């Protein structure tokens, strides 16, 4: 096995895992704390990518575009919570699914009307579009390191916010007993709106970071939302620690499986059979992991503490 290829694929898996965490962290906040199933969370990921792409061309600077696009995505998340999610809080999960699935169709259509059917490639500044030479054969794109650093910084900031700030304390209290928190004078509706907006910003940030790699395109959030649900189920619904560890686990398993599973299969079967079966099995790996976790630990690897 080529060591340089292994290191590169490990970094690819880490990058994918951190992007999944940005999406899954917002999803687990909304699902675990607000008890709201938001299928349209992936559409916020898509809108973040499109808004960042437009602002990049407007400002001529990708980083400034990200800084401006983040609060815009948060405002969109707040509006979604206020006019779509809030009226559905008291309804059952089937109504949540139907309402947010309809929202996916609306947001995809709006994106089509605003940006057109074609995707938008996001240009990077020269200092982010280069490569870092770490050896004779090991070359790492600079932007990949930025994604990894931004993902780790977001994870650390979110952990600090939830566990060591007054807002985080109110979020945890509202998740445990929203009626009691409201009785103590806390505006629980505004609190939940802030949680929803924070989740939208995290999903939007993931879309902004991936847009220069894959381009901003309509429906790009529909695929990642499925994997994000796998992450929060494996990690434990409502658990930030679980979402982080599960996202890294899923990202590494998915990336390494697609890269090296055929080599492992060749040890026990013919080359033709290995090359035929490996892609199918690698595509199922994360769902196999989810099934194993559900059978052994139905609440996930790191379920949130309950009292």
Please characterize this protein's 3D structure.
By secondary structure, the chain is mainly α. It has one domain: Orthogonal Bundle (ABC transporter involved in vitamin B12 uptake, BtuC), CATH 1.10.3470. The chain contains 11 helices and 2 strands; from the N terminus they run ααααββααααααα. The protein has a two-stranded antiparallel ribbon. A hairpin with a 5-residue loop joins strand 1 and strand 2. Helix 2 crosses helix 8. The longest helix is centred in the first third of the chain and has 32 residues. The protein starts with a helix and ends in an 11-residue tail after the last helix. 40% of the residues are buried. The mean pLDDT is 88.
What's a quick, concise take on this entry?
The protein has 307 residues and is mostly helical. It is built from eleven helices and two strands, in the order H-H-H-H-E-E-H-H-H-H-H-H-H.
